[in-house]
Design goal:
By secondary structure, the chain is of the alpha+beta class. The chain has one domain: Muramoyl-pentapeptide Carboxypeptidase, domain 2 (2-Layer Sandwich), CATH 3.30.1380. Helix content is 34%, strand content 23%. α4 runs antiparallel to α6. It is globular, with a radius of gyration of 22 Å. The N and C termini lie far apart (68 Å).
Length: 211
């Protein structure tokens, strides 16, 4: 009788515990720009950006947030899929598009860049979309993934295929990657790993890396 009671207790305990759940990593330190730094960044944007919208601070849970963020509406060149971007990221991105793309484009193709395509900015996920680990800078609206450039003559220079394809495409893409390394803290390209074969990852995170 005692053994039967013990068995029933063990079964009840197992049903309460259940299978282990996969959990997101604990939230990282909260990312908040102080008001003076944000005002300074916005003043810089006012000088070089035609139109942008200041966004309210958002906390999305699981450690993900978009704080001190803006949405770029017009920087002189159309950009696809731009959402929330921290002000420092938006400022560096606008300068990169406005100052660093045209000389390589004209040098290689004799035609200027008229559109930049991206995969977007904010996404609540871990680095490399892993089930566990550190949150990506995308989880803080602090990164943008650039996938292609469209020229005035109609040519489209995509990172996927272009990086290791036509030599002129490769030279152009590496030139704009190298220019990005002077403006962003982390720049990852197809030279980094296969997960970046189709885009340039640009962020303003803590680690300085250009690959």
């Amino acid at each position: 009788m005692r053994r039967a009671v013990l068995l029933l207790c063990l079964l009840a305990l197992a049903s309460c515990i259940g299978a282990p759940r996969r959990q997101r990593p604990p939230p990282q330190a909260e990312r908040v720009m102080d008001s003076a730094a944000l005002r300074q960044c916005l003043s810089k944007l006012d000088l070089g950006v035609a139109r942008y919208r200041l966004l309210p601070d958002r906390d999305f849970g699981n450690g993900c947030s978009a704080k001190g963020a803006v949405q770029l509406l017009d920087i002189g060149t159309p950009i696809t899929n731009l959402g929330a971007m921290t002000c420092p990221l938006a400022s560096s991105f606008a300068q990169w598009v406005q100052s660093d793309l045209q000389i390589p484009a004209m040098g290689e193709f004799g035609s200027p860049v008229v559109k930049v395509e991206t995969f977007g900015t904010y996404a609540c996920r871990n680095v490399n979309n892993a089930a566990e680990g550190r949150l990506s800078e995308h989880a803080f609206a602090n990164a943008v993934d650039v996938s292609a450039f469209v020229l005035k003559d109609g040519r489209r220079i995509a990172v996927l295929g272009g990086w290791r394809g036509d030599p002129a495409n490769g030279r152009f893409l590496r030139a704009v990657r190298d220019a990005a390394c002077r403006r962003f803290r982390t720049v990852l390209s197809p030279d980094y790993n296969a997960l970046h074969e189709n885009h340039l990852h640009l962020d303003m995170g803590g680690a300085r890396l250009c690959r």
